[in-house]
């Protein structure tokens, strides 16, 4: 589990997230909800130790530096090396001393065909970039997956396939999601947090059993704020 | 411990693959090859011209005894006539083109080419991830400190690799060129000289490798600061070729001063305008630049948001 102990994030005198104590459970899908600019991406940066904060964030009692290689973030814009092919990007970012090409090819086949993977990433659509990021995720085999607005730009088929993947991965991965397309997240998330007025509030710890809709939770908490 | 080392090696392997697939390694090897070809060609041209001059003056002599007399150097080691001048020049240039001088010849050329080659190499290594925004993936995976260390280690290992390739190519090219010269000039007629290297080639190699890392570090700092290649290339080129030596505390002066002590510059590359200094002061200045640029690069990577 990821423990936030007396966690406080501020920029100079501006408090972004007030002192909070909460837990992100292992092997569950946790969803952070809130309007743009509320601090969701800042929270992710703090989780990764890329922003300074007060308090502690512990991964099963370990500091981020001890578990960093077990975490992957799939960013909204999915950055890759634009003038190289998808295949070359995967080889570079696979962080392996020796590349097992057969294994790599089998992981690629689930999402892309041979022609697409050999094309330069700059020719990829938004959705194709996300597919490439998902292949990278399968290669790196992380234990903790953070997806920042992952559903943006995906077509219907890819959304359905990603939902299935997330459900499958949730069995043995800790998954943290942020986003606004609530329809995509319904049915796959276990825990719901909202970031409201600088506070992180646990709204549902077993959302799959809940009768409430994400849209309703959002409406109730942020109506008129966006 | 083994796991930590494996992790570090994996990060460095990733950097190498990046350079390989981006053709960076190829482009820099081609630049080094072009430098070697240029220097060998210039020294070859110089010796053939000197030989032509020598034979032209030689033809003016009707009596061989007169020529022998003129070729004898006086007690003060002074060259007093054209035939003697060209004879000495040929001896020197033959030494320059001989296999003994091959690497020194390349290191001397490095005074012109290495700051720009390795400065741009460091620059591209430093700015590449900002340009593609892939830095936010990398720092999340390995942390900022390891990210910085991977860049520095990759730079040091790659430059060493470039040097090894440069030595191999130079040695082979040197032997070929010397054979070409032997076929064109009667080298045995000009073999008696008392020239030698001022310092051994290993010392020259160590210093040139070190200075290449310094320039690569300067390039890397410019790369992480500017986050782009064009401005950085202009800055490095301007510093390497347009900015004069200001004082003995200048990096360029320190570099030239030590090079002047280590190499002889018998060939086509000459240095001038060096302000008097000492090896200690020069080394302190060069070390100071290396430390400053590395600390500054580290601080920029640590402090600046990877999301900008």
Describe this structure in words.
The complex is a heterodimer of chains A (226) and B (308). Chain A has a single domain (2-79, 142-222), classed as Rossmann fold. Chain A is built from nine helices and nine strands. Chain A has helices at residues 40-47, 64-67, 86-93, 101-109, 114-117, 126-140, 156-169, 182-185, 214-222; strands spanning 2-11, 14-24, 29-33, 54-59, 71-74, 144-148, 174-178, 191-196, 199-204. In chain A, the strands form two sheets. In chain A, strands 5-6-7-3-8-9 form a six-stranded mixed beta sheet, sandwiched between helices. A three-stranded antiparallel beta sheet of chain A has the order 2-1-4, covered by helices on one side. In chain A, helix 7 (156-169) links the parallel strand 6 and strand 7 (174-178). Chain A is globular and about 50 Å long. Chain B is mainly α. Chain B starts with a helix and ends in a 5-residue tail after the last helix. The model of chain B has no long low-confidence stretch (mean pLDDT 88).
Q: Helices, strands, pairings?
A:
The complex is a heterodimer of chains A (226) and B (308).
Chain A: E1 2-11, E2 14-24, E3 29-33, H1 40-47, E4 54-59, H2 64-67, E5 71-74, H3 86-93, H4 101-109, H5 114-117, H6 126-140, E6 144-148, H7 156-169, E7 174-178, H8 182-185, E8 191-196, E9 199-204, H9 214-222
Parallel strand pairs in A: 3-7, 3-8, 5-6, 6-7
Antiparallel strand pairs in A: 1-2, 1-4, 8-9
Chain B: H1 2-21, H2 24-60, H3 64-71, H4 82-97, H5 102-132, H6 135-142, H7 144-184, H8 201-226, H9 230-242, H10 251-262, H11 279-303
Helix pairs in contact in B: 1-7, 2-4, 2-5, 2-7, 5-7, 5-8, 5-9, 6-7, 7-8, 7-11, 8-9, 8-11, 10-11
């Amino acid at each position: 589990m990821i423990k936030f102990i007396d966690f406080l994030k501020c920029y100079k005198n501006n408090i972004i997230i007030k002192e909070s104590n909460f837990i992100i459970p292992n092997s569950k899908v946790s969803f952070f909800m809130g309007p743009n600019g509320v601090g969701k991406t800042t929270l992710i940066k703090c989780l990764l130790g890329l922003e300074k904060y007060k308090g502690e964030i512990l991964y099963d009692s370990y500091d981020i530096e001890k578990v960093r290689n077990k975490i992957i973030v799939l960013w909204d814009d999915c950055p890759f090396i634009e003038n190289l092919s998808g295949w070359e990007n995967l080889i570079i970012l696979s962080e392996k001393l020796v590349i097992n090409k057969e294994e790599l090819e089998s992981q690629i086949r689930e999402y892309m065909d041979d022609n697409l993977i050999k094309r330069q990433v700059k020719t990829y659509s938004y959705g194709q970039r996300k597919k490439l990021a998902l292949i990278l995720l399968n290669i790196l085999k992380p234990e903790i997956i953070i997806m920042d607005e992952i559903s943006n730009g995906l077509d219907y088929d890819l959304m359905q396939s990603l939902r299935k993947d997330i459900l499958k991965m949730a069995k043995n991965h800790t998954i943290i999601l942020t986003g606004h397309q609530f329809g995509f997240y319904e049915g796959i998330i276990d825990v719901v947090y909202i970031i409201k007025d600088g506070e992180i509030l646990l709204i549902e710890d077993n959302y799959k059993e809940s009768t409430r809709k994400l849209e309703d939770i959002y409406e109730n908490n942020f109506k008129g704020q966006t | 411990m083994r796991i930590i080392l494996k992790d570090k090696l994996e990060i460095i392997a990733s950097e190498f693959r990046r350079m390989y697939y981006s053709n960076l390694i190829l482009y820099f090897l081609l630049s080094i090859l072009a430098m070697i070809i240029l220097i060998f060609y210039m020294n070859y041209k110089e010796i053939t011209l000197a030989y032509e001059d020598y034979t032209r003056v030689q033809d003016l002599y009707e009596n061989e005894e007169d020529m022998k007399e003129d070729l004898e150097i006086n007690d003060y080691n002074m060259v007093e006539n054209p035939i003697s001048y060209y004879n000495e020049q040929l001896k020197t240039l033959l030494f320059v083109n001989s296999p003994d001088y091959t690497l020194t010849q390349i290191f001397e050329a490095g005074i012109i080419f290495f700051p720009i080659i390795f400065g741009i190499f460091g620059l591209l290594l430093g700015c590449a991830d900002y340009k593609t925004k892939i830095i936010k993936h990398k720092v999340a995976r390995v942390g900022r400190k390891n990210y910085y260390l991977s860049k520095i280690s990759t730079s040091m290992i790659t430059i060493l690799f470039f040097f090894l390739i440069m030595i191999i190519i130079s040695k082979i090219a040197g032997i070929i060129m010397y054979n070409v010269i032997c076929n064109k000039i009667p080298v045995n007629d000009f073999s008696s000289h008392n020239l030698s290297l001022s310092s051994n080639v290993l010392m020259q190699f160590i210093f040139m490798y070190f200075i290449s890392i310094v320039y690569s570090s300067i390039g890397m700092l410019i790369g992480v600061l500017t986050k782009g290649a064009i401005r950085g290339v202009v800055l490095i080129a301007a510093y390497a070729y347009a900015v004069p030596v200001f004082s003995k505390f200048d990096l360029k002066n320190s570099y030239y001063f030590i090079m002047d002590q280590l190499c002889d510059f018998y060939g086509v590359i000459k240095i001038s305008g060096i302000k008097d200094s000492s090896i200690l002061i020069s080394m302190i200045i060069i070390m100071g630049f290396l430390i400053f640029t590395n600390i500054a690069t580290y601080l920029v990577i640590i402090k600046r948001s990877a999301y900008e």
